[in-house]
Design goal:
Elements (H helix, E strand, L loop, with lengths): L1 E2 L2 E2 L2 H10 L29 E10 L5 E9 L4 E8 L4 H15 L4 E4 L8 H9 L3 E4 L9 H15 L7 H17 L19
Parallel strand pairs: 3-6, 6-7
Antiparallel strand pairs: 1-2, 3-4, 4-5
Amino acid sequence: MRIKGFRWNFKRVYRVYTAMGLNIRRRGKKRLPARVKQALFQPQRPNQVWSIDFMHDSLWDGRPYRILNIMDDYNRQVLDMEVDSSLPAQRVIRVLERLKPERGLPEMIRVDNGPEFISAKLDQWCKLHKITLTYIQPGKPTQNAYIERLNGSIRRELLNTYVFRTLEEVRIKTQEYIEDYNYHRPHKALANRPPIFQTTQP
């Protein structure tokens, strides 16, 4: 085939096209369903609403890691802080399954629109366990205010305070933080009692 005086060898052109990676299909951005603005629900008992969120930080050598924070909104109790370099949706489910024998499961889980939370796997797991999965509106972290406040405390008091060289060091310190936060940290919203001792509505 000739185009404006040039003869094209389509097989050669395609080999160059492929070598440059131009034949790779671009993945379209996943469109989120419309999120309805909702007032921050204030639970009246434990296990009514849990909030889940991720935090990001780096080790001393620059390697990134993530922390999955889970809290009970009723008494602000930190239920778990899972640390690893990667925490996909299946890992989120595994952590929730780990909490089930001792803690039980909530009626509702409040999350943002991260890829792990909009995963079909998490949605199916919640439906299987009759848990309502509630999403905040994109760019509206105040709709998940309880755990956002927790994230701020963790950032100031833990991640910005210590230099971590390994993931194991982060795991040790997060467990110490959970113990202190749940058993020794008074909360004004809980009549100045720590979360673990809040068994009735303040």
